[in-house]
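Proteins fold reproducibly. Consider a sample protein:
=====
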Amino acid sequence: MVNKYGSVELDNKGSVARDHLALERTFLAWLRTSLSFASIGIAITQLFRLNSTISASNPKNHLRQVGKPLGGTFIGISIVVLFIGFHRYFESQHYVIRGKFPASRGSILIVSIIAAALIIASFVVVLAIGGSQFEK
């Protein structure tokens, strides 16, 4: 299993170098997406904390309790996205070495469902908190 993740030396014939560099760029895109989710999670946690500190006099203030789980969810999803990208890189490299290319349906579907769920959850939280602030 460790051999799967070791260094690979290939003859640079045809488009071998280009294909492997493209795989690396794709992995870096997965990494960038993962870092974006983590940054959003940290921003949400801090935003909810800052907003709850400013309006601490409001007894119906539940922002801090909602911000931490929502931010933590984004950070957890960033770890999942990073592992999906890591697995996808080595799986694709394995196939490209053998002259094949796997279509990436599963990883795209998983990340799309996760992103949609996070967007919907964030929207619900914003609506729930926004509505409770107008009940003063």
